[in-house]
């Protein structure tokens, strides 16, 4: 590394230490300064190119600085940047109508806000208003945000910071079949983990407004439940009058090979929350529900930046791009290729304990021979990948799941390049084991 570059990074790291709250953590022992993005690539300030296999955590599904989306944003910025929801403007209403068509089923009433946390907070408020109940149920290995209530319904201990989280939250085990929390084996288990929901509902009758979960646990290590899990859970919730909130922050907008993750499981959420990829990198989120449930929220509600014109214009262009390029089918096809290649790697490297995921949302769980989670090995692999020009992610309750969520515009040859670099990174760390 050139001395001038090194000192530039040092300079920014010092600013970070001095001016940011220490909880803001970053990847890599030796980080780079990212300056530019185009398609599936990011570039640092030395001009070094990186294949981005994490998409800013599942955000830029249509690629960095997608020209069609940028054009819509520039045009909107020139006309009208922001007003807020107290005025009637075109982009927000066109987006609401467009989303109602894009989302399968009866979900067609949107409330726009800015972040995933805010959308989940709003969805839970709506569930309370609709049911007149006070409590929530959530899954042990899911994540739903950083605000008071959303971090309280987040089960992964790594992300639970508040020493006094909300008390009206009841957790059930996550359906993590490769490591069953009930010590059972799928399918002979008969999906007993879903019955845990019923036990809680019987214990606290008429108290639980909604169960909130992701369709595939993202931060929890790309955990894909068996289809029967959601079918059973949905029946139990219906029986007890409990709403189902599906948080599609990571799984939404074609990532898993369908428009939304819940479509893989034959279920219909009562409230859907979306954010991240909705505007391909501009901040916008929403909770979306049915006509009937929407009727319960009539007291005035507003969000300063909720569906602001610029983000709404970006979201409209994003949905157009996804539809016209059939990104759902593309994620399905290329995800199958990536999974096949990852399975070949699993045969080669015993460190890879499991390969799982849907579409272009894949996780490789790393474990040592004695079964211990290989979190330190993963950190070294991520660093070695970065040095080779590839950025990948890290998830899982034990922080040992190498995660790929590339932009959905990635090509076959870029996937082959990615696999070649992953092979190189594994070889490097296995040839030089940590002391
Ligand atoms: C599944 C899920 N829900 C909610 C959130 C919170 O979103 P935000 O950071 O926009 O508040 C995240 C963030 O990573 C997420 O992955």
Structure description:
The structure is a single chain. By secondary structure, the chain is of the alpha/beta class. The protein folds into two domains: 3-62 and 327-431, Aspartate Aminotransferase, domain 1, CATH 3.90.1150; 67-324, 3-Layer(aba) Sandwich (Aspartate Aminotransferase, domain 2), CATH 3.40.640. It has 13 helices and 15 strands. The protein has helices at residues 3-19, 55-58, 67-79, 90-102, 116-131, 148-152, 192-203, 227-239, 291-294, 309-324, 327-348, 375-387, 412-431, and strands at 34-38, 41-44, 49-52, 109-113, 135-139, 169-172, 208-214, 243-247, 271-274, 285-289, 352-358, 361-366, 390-391, 393-395, 401-404. The strands form three sheets. Strands 4-10-9-8-7-5-6 form a seven-stranded mixed sheet, sandwiched between helices. Strands 1-2-3-13 form a four-stranded mixed sheet. A hairpin with a 2-residue loop joins strand 1 and strand 2 (41-44). Helix 7 runs parallel beside helix 8, helix 11 packs parallel to helix 13 (412-431) and helix 12 (375-387) crosses helix 13. The protein is globular. The two termini are 25 Å apart. Bound molecules: pyridoxal-5'-phosphate.
């Amino acid at each position: 590394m050139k001395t001038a570059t090194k000192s530039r990074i040092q300079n920014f790291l010092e600013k970070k230490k001095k001016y940011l709250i220490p909880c803001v953590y970053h990847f890599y022992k030796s980080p780079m300064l990212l300056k530019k993005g185009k398609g599936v690539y990011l570039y640092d300030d030395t001009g070094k190119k990186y294949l981005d296999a994490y998409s800013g955590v599942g955000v830029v599904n249509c690629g960095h600085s997608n020209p069609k989306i940028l054009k819509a944003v520039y045009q909107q910025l020139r006309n009208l940047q922001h007003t807020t929801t107290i005025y009637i403007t075109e982009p927000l209403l066109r987006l609401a109508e467009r989303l109602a068509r894009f989302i399968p089923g009866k979900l067609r009433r949107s409330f726009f806000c800015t972040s995933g946390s805010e959308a989940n907070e709003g969805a839970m408020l709506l569930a309370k208003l609709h049911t007149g109940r006070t409590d929530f149920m959530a899954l042990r290995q899911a994540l739903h945000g950083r605000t008071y209530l959303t971090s309280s319904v987040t089960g992964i201990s790594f992300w639970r910071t508040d020493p006094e989280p909300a008390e009206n939250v009841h957790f059930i085990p996550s359906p993590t079949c490769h490591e069953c929390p009930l010590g059972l084996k799928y399918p002979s288990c008969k999906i007993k983990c879903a019955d845990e929901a019923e036990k809680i509902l019987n214990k606290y009758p008429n108290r639980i407004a909604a169960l909130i979960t992701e369709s595939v646990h993202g931060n929890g290590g790309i955990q894909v439940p068996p289809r029967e899990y959601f079918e059973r859970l949905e029946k139990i919730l219906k029986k007890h009058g409990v709403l189902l909130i599906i948080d599609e922050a990571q799984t939404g907008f074609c990532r898993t090979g369908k428009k939304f993750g819940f479509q893989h499981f034959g279920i219909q959420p009562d409230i859907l929350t979306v954010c991240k990829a909705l505007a391909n990198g501009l901040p916008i989120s929403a909770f979306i529900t049915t006509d009937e449930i929407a009727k319960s929220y009539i007291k005035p509600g507003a969000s300063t930046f909720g569906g602001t014109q610029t983000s709404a214009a970006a979201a409209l262009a994003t949905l157009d791009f996804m539809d016209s390029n059939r990104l759902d089918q593309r994620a399905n096809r290329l995800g199958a290729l990536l999974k096949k290649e990852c399975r070949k790697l699993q045969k080669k490297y015993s460190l890879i304990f499991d390969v799982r995921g849907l579409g272009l949302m894949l996780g490789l769980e790393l474990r040592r021979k004695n079964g211990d989670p290989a979190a330190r090995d993963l950190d070294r692999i991520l660093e070695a990948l970065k040095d080779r020009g590839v950025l990948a992610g890290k998830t899982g309750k034990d922080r040992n799941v190498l995660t790929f969520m590339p932009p959905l515009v990635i090509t076959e040859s870029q996937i082959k390049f990615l696999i070649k670099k992953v092979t190189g990174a594994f070889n490097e760390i296995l040839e030089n084991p940590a002391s």
